[in-house]
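Database export, one record per block. Field names are fixed; values are copied verbatim from the stored entry.
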Amino acid sequence: MCTIIVGDSENKTSYKLPHHRADGYATVWRGVAACAAVLMGARGGVDAPTSDIAGAKTHIAKHYKDFDKGEPPWEKGVSQAQIIDEIDYLITLLDKEGISDEVKKSLQSLAKFIKRSPVNDITVNIEREITYEDIQEAIKRIANKQEEK
């Protein structure tokens, strides 16, 4: 009936990721698809131990094969075009919302990642305070590099 049981098995709220019918245990595709979405973080994800989540992914992946739906979403790659779209969206959000201290820390992590990434011809000076303009410029240079490929 479910992939993960957290807590009392007699309590229905303990059952996570339902995707089988209670009567006969037939698998329901829409339930499988919903479970995959939750395992990818939709609806706040699933509150369960990491090992249980790994087992759930394996179980749900088998149902993807049963229904001849290809790979589950966590096994699919992301295209470069999708990455560029996400970068463009991030730039739009930063322009609109500005940068809090928490966001600034995340952007500094991104800048450090860019510095050590295989796209090593994109320079980011992290020896000084990183500004919003530095980050925006680095993101634009990455997007332009990806478009050239």
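Remark 1: The radius of gyration is 21 Å.
Remark 2: The chain has two domains: 2-75, 80-148.
End of record.
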